[in-house]
Amino acid sequence: MRFLLLPLLLGWSVLTHAQLLTGVWGGIRTQNAGGCFPTYSTELHIIYMQNNSFMGNVYSFDNDKYTKINFTGKYNPLTNRIVIIENAVLQYNVPDSCVPCIKTYELILSRNGQAESLQGEWHGHEMGNNHDCQPGKISLSRLGKSNFPVDVYQNDTLARMQKELKLQNRQKEVVQSIPIDTAFIKIELYDNAEIDDDTVSVFLNNTLLLYRKRLTGKPLVLDVNVFPNTDYELMMYAENLGRIPPNTSLMVITAGRKRYQLHLSSTEQKSAVVKFKYERGNK
Predict the structure, then answer these.
(1) Distance in angstroms (rounded) separating the CA atoms of residues 21 and 17
(2) Domains of the chain by range and CATH?
(3) Which helix (H) or strand (E) element contains residue 161?
(4) Is 83 exposed, middle or buried (CB count within 10 Å of its CB: 0-12, 13-18, 19+)?
(5) Does pTM surpass 0.85?
(6) Pick from 109, 88, 105, 143: which is nearest to 29 by CA?
(7) Pairing state of beta strands 115-126 and 136-142?
């Protein structure tokens, strides 16, 4: 049994370490001679990760000059090697003589005690053409707080749906504010008491995560990655009131070893809201 348990523990260790890539990484990105700036400040936001694949946004900035570019990436837990490929420039403000660069990063994850770092090299091509950018190096460490707004992961289908939504203007009623000590939380939504066809949409920081889902005795489940020192607001918007008004639900939040059960009630005039914040070291 001892020999069977060891691979399982090693597998759990690898999985946990991989999951911990989510969050904010910040530092310096340099560029060889001939680039627009020899040194840029950089923030890497890994907002979603599953099975060693991840996605997020990268900010490069120097005073009022900046770019925001989304990316996808892969992590090899055996070698600690990371490859990040930028996809599309979302926002930018650069001098007229400069063109944003679409980059590929090759990084190594290292750990020294509690300190974690990502270091490596990058290369790329100019936005809109295949002209090579001057390559360079990058060195990042984990940050406790971002200098930029943190996006919530949303799949393409929900993003398209949200663009078409026309929500009523309703009052928000805060049910509870919860301090958490983990970057990963599980949220389960059940119908409260009698199942009467209550239907809800759920938003996290105004980002649609569930759309017109019926509440039953089987939970609607959300697995959420959260960033440290960032405020989160989960809102339950009633799409109908069911056969027995108001629209009621039981929300179960699992955060590490802690579990919270909340009874929520939403109407056509108000939406139930739960707030939470991940504070490292808050045990």
Answers:
(1) 7
(2) 2-142 (2.40.128.120), 156-278 (no CATH)
(3) helix 156-164
(4) middle
(5) no
(6) 105
(7) antiparallel
